[in-house]
Amino acid sequence: MSVINLEDPSGYGRVIISNEKVQEIIEQKDCTESQLKTKSVNAGIYCVNSELLNRYIPLLSNNNAQAEYYLTDIIKMAVNENKTVTPIYVEEEEFKGVNSKLDLAEAEIIMQNRIKKALMEQGITMRFPDSIYIDCRATFEGESILENGVTILGASKLINAHIKTNSVIEDSIIENSDVGPMGRIRPLSHLKDTHVGNFVEVKKSTLIGVKAGHLAYLGDATIEEGSNIGAGVITCNYDGKNKYKTTIGKNVFVGSDSQLVAPVNIEDDVMIGAGTTLTKDVKKGSLALTRSPLKLIPNFFHKFFGK
Asked: Which cofactor does it need (predicted)?
C-alpha cells in the first residue's frame, strides 16, 4: 500500500508501521493521543489479492467513531492472518489528499507550478510567475509574454501575445497582439495584430488590426484593420431582451465617448465624431456626428457668483 510521510498529518488516516511492515490503518477520529503523533499516513492506493477482498469486505464493521465502514480495516485483518503488508513510500505532491479549502489551494499551487514550469521551458516569458494563473486548457504558441497578475482562463490560445499586468483572458484567441494593463477579454473573442489597452473590455468580438487604447467596451462586434477606437467608446449591444451586432469596417476612426447602438454597420473609411450616439448605418467615406451646438455666454461666471 502507498504511504506518505507528512510533517502535518492532520485529516489523514495514520499508518502504523513496525519493522517496515504495516500493522494497521487508523482513521484520525479513532486515534489515541500517541497515534495522532504518527507522521506516516495513508495515500489511498492498494494492491490486494481479490480473493482476500472477497473474504474481508463482508467482515467489515462500523464500530468506530464515525459509525462508518472503513475499507482500510482489511489491513489489520490481513496482519491478523500473518500476511505481510508492505508500505510503498510516495511523494506528497503525487498523492496529496484534498480534505479542506486549504488543501485545495495547496493542490492548485502544485498544478499551477507544473503548468507554468512547462510553459517557461517552452519559451513563454512570465514576470513574477507566482502571481499568474493559467488554466490547464490554455495553449501557447511562439514567444508570448505574461506580466504579473495575469489570468488566463478556459481554452484560450495565445500566439506571440503580450498580456500586460492584471489582465484577464477568457476562452479567447490572442494572436500577435497585446492586452492591458488591466484589460479584459471575455469568451469567444479573437484579437489579431491588435492593441487593446488599459480598462478595455472585449466580449464575443473579432478585432483584426485594431487599436483600442483605453476605457472602451466592445461587445458582439467585428472590427477590421486600421480602425481606431477612442476612449470611452461603447457598443450598446443589449436592449434588455436581445444582443445585437456592431460591424465596423477598415480604417474607421471612432471618436471618444461615442455610443454605437447596435445593430449598426459602419463601412470603410468612416469618421465618427467624439460624443456621437450612432443609431444608423454609415456609408463609406462619411462623417457621422451628433452633437449639440456649443453655447458661449460672456461674463456668466461673474453674473452667477456676483463678482
From this structure: Mg(2+)
Is residue 119 assigned to a domain?
Answer: yes
Give how far the C-alpha of residue 307 lies from the chain's centroid of Cα atoms, to the nearest Å. Answer: 59
**Contacts (Cβ under 8 Å, ≥6 apart) of 145:** 124, 125, 126, 127, 161, 162, 163
Q: pLDDT: is 92 or 177 the higher one?
A: 177
The reply to whether 225 falls in a domain is: yes
Check whether residue 109 and residue 85 sit in a common domain. Answer: no
Whether 89 and 113 share a structural domain: no
CATH of the domain at 12: 3.90.550.10
Choose, from 162, 190, 195, 214, the residue flagged as catalytic.
214
The number of residues in the chain equals 307
pLDDT tens-place string over residues 239-270? 999 999 999 999 999 999 999 999 999 999 99
Question: Position of cell 489511498?
Answer: 44
CA distances, 207 to each of 67, 120, 145, 179, 264 (Å): 61, 28, 20, 12, 16
Chain centroid to CA 118: 17
Residue-number span of the structural domain to which 85 is assigned: 2-95
CA distances from 206 to 150, 192, 221, 224 (A): 21, 8, 6, 8
| Alpha helices per DSSP H over the chain | 33-36, 50-56, 73-80, 92-95, 101-122, 300-305
Query: Domain check: are 105 and 88 in the same one?
Result: no
pTM, entire model: 0.82
Q: Give the residue carrying C-alpha cell 479513532.
A: 30
Specify the pLDDT at position 92: 85
CB count in 10 Å sphere of residue 200: 24
Co-location of 86 and 107 in the same domain: no
Q: How many domains does the chain have?
A: 2
Take residue 105 and report the three cell numbers written for it. Answer: 489551494
Catalytic site includes residue 214: yes
Q: Is residue 300 part of a domain?
A: no
